[in-house]
Amino acid sequence: MPAMPLIPAVEATLTTTPRVASRASMQARITRKVPVRTKGYAATTIDDVGAAAGATRATFYLHFTNKAELLGELVGAVEQEADDLNERLSEAVRVGDRRAISTWLDAAFDSWETVRYSAMAQEEAAAIEPEGRRARAESFDRGVGAIMRGLAAAGRGDETGRRVRAVLMYSQLRNVFHRWMRVGWDVDRQEMSPVMTNMWLAALQEQSGARTKPPRRTTARTADLTAGTPARRRRAPAPRPSRTTD
Prior knowledge:
mainly alpha
């Protein structure tokens, strides 16, 4: 996976978190062309972030306890958009037709551009920060929960069945998203969208019960065995009397 830029994410966070009034003025000193943008979350230091913002380490610590807290606030800001998208996902699954699913998937693809830097930083942080792992797991659970609510509203399946479908559907979407973060649209989006729509529609359909074998033909012998009585044995022919000679 390529280096995951942190500075664009920091830029968004500093404009939305009002803990310190001067944070908004710090945002103006952050640019997207600083070298730290290519370092990724793990390699980016507090000094890098402070230098990008034109501030010292002491100034950074007036705003954040550590780098993980910075990531947490950034993810929290992005989740507001994700929550709205999840509400629309529940409704799309409840409706369950091609138009609803296709429209929602297109909206999800559009949102990826907005959250790309934040998601990339979160993915790298998940490998080294407990907060990052927890945030990633909670984000996945919210997506799965949105699908399950839609299935429940439509009366499709039981609780276990709904979760199975939701996990498979959302896992597919997340895997495509993670690949897109690394390589972009190496598969044409316009061709992929209807294919994924078909896959989701198939997952939403009620599945018929498992096929059962036709009943076995009952014979006198099998009836006797089933009833617990021994089957009648075929009688052997009586021996013929031997001929004697005078």
